[in-house]
Design brief:
The chain is an all-beta fold. Helices cover 0% and strands 53% of the residues.
Length: 115
Amino acid sequence: QVQLVESGGGLVPPGGSLRLSCAASGTLFSFYPMGWYRQAPGKQRELVASITSGLITNYADSVKGRFTISRDNAKKLVYLQMNSLKPEDTAVYYCNLKKSSTDYWGQGTQVTVSS
């Protein structure tokens, strides 16, 4: 059974930084691409960043230059470093792993950017 657990969310003022972490268990972590998604109130869930087993990354245009995704295969962790945060970054952030035809999701962690 694959389990994903996010942590690191919180309340931060505009311009601040947060680092989100996703811990994976129950799978051969290094073989699979990982992604961070977010869902803001009244909006659809969107891909924020992804990283493949070969360390190829991609980012949504809205976060390029501000967010960085990385992974530590030995520790089975994926990170999302978020800098220069804006109020529009406020959302629940979810960790994702796709294995075969099944998507696995964490429980989500709330990020709120507000003065």
